Amino acid sequence: MEVSDDLLKKFKERMHISHNSEDSNLKELLSFSIADLQEKCGLFNVDEHVRARELVIDRTRYAYNDSIEFFNENFQSQITSLGFSLSVAESGESDEVSV
After folding, report:
1. Backbone angles phi, psi at 45, to 5 degrees
2. How far apart (Å, rounded) are the C-alpha atoms in residues 33 and 52?
3. What's the burial of 3, exposed, middle or buried (CB within 10 Å: 0-12/13-18/19+)?
4. What is the reported pTM?
5. At 76, which helix (H) or strand (E)?
6. Is residue 62's pLDDT more than 80?
7. Residues near 2 by beta carbon (within 8 Å), at least 6 away in sequence
8. Contacts of 24 (CB under 8 A, 6+ apart)
9. Distance set, CA 6 to CA 2, 46, 81 (Å)
10. Torsions phi, psi of 77, nearest 5?
């Protein structure tokens, strides 16, 4: 899964990472997070969907800090909400998904 430089930049800003030596590892972690959340919630464009992007960044933060086992429990309501909103958007019932 291709991770944009913009997403990498947003993650590094959130984590206060200013060096580039970990960029390939961070992109890999971000791609794992995108894949995991798309499997749970449905397909989304991480660069266009604000709520999905925030969850990807949060999941990657947990993975980066070797605490991934706590992510699903701590973010269950947000994961469920994202899945529901993507499902509703797919059925054409709402136009409030992207920002």
Report:
1. -95, 110
2. 10
3. buried
4. 0.88
5. helix 76-90
6. yes
7. 31
8. none
9. 12, 10, 25
10. -65, -40
